């Protein structure tokens, strides 16, 4: 599956922020972000949340009932940002 | 670098029922009676738990700089068992059993007064549970503790029954939103405490000099503090025997800064500073060390 523009932008942010040693194009937007898939841990999730908040003005909160879905994949995260972004 | 699980899968010995009985007896008999029960229990573990004996020997021979005898190991177990027994009394709010000497509380309160939150780094050293004394008496903000619930789960659930509305709350490690909870607690100006000495499966670590040999120390706590730009204070509560605990807060960093270039170097420096702090406490109170697994073992191959 190929990425849309926002997915690519967020993938780039994540790879840069977390200093991941992977090519942006090799990321599957449907793959899991946490544990398996990209193999991110909870501190990585926090760093992503901080950079997403800075870049798009979207606050990711611990008590959001959608969290499981939002962090399930790059595609889901991008969808959430697209709906909630203020900049 | 990544390591294999060394402690998280070590099942707790003893059944839940036995623990309930132990806690019941401890509360019924009071602290003197409870402590008397620890002697046969420690003797049992000294004889039958080979793994704990190996870990104790590996640590004690380094910290004491000599081959530890049975007497040293027994003392090590007894110190550990006493702090666990005392957890029950702390949960039951029997603070009167203890003679606590606190050092550095003013410094901590000054940090807390800035309302920007504070991370407390402790270790599996002495009694982390002594934070309850702080949380229940005179701390102006809530204290949250970050820990694995599945590990020591049985004991925790038994203890939690003693005091369901404990003033110290637990943030469970190992979930995607864990660190968001930490960020939100700090944003409310609260204290979040964590044990920064153990490396868990998949954790990135730095090898730091520790009691004469390089040991793996987790990067996570430093990365967390840097991401949240939070001040970090070190916490220890050393058991000195009898009723006495020495609680100490020491400044670690106003901010931990991990620059993009030289990040690994900065991480190593911070981890090594923490390891140095831990080492000085181990030398000062050798029997207060409660990492009963091979702390120095690591796996570089992953």
Defining key terms:
heterodimer; A: 87 residues; mainly alpha; Non-ribosomal Peptide Synthetase Peptidyl Carrier Protein, Chain A; B: 302 residues; alpha/beta; 7-stranded mixed beta sheet; 9 strands; disordered N terminus
Description:
The complex is a heterodimer of chains A (87) and B (302). Chain A has 87 residues and is mainly α. Chain A has a single domain (5-84), classed as Orthogonal Bundle (Non-ribosomal Peptide Synthetase Peptidyl Carrier Protein, Chain A), CATH 1.10.1200.10. Helix content of chain A is 49%, strand content 0%. Chain A contains 4 helices and no strands. Chain A has helices at 5-17, 42-56, 67-70, 74-84. In chain A, helix 1 packs across helix 2 and helix 1 (5-17) packs across helix 4 (74-84). The longest helix of chain A has 15 residues, at 42-56. Chain B is α/β, with parallel strands linked by helices and 302 residues long. Chain B has one domain (16-288). In chain B, the strands form 2 sheets. A 7-stranded mixed sheet of chain B has the order 1-9-8-2-5-3-4. Chain B has a two-stranded antiparallel ribbon with strand order 6-7. In chain B, helix 1 packs antiparallel against helix 3 and helix 1 (16-48) crosses helix 6 (153-162). The N and C termini of chain B lie close together (7 Å).
Write a short abstract of this structure.
With 87 residues, chain A is an all-alpha fold. Chain A has helices spanning 5-17, 42-56, 67-70, 74-84.
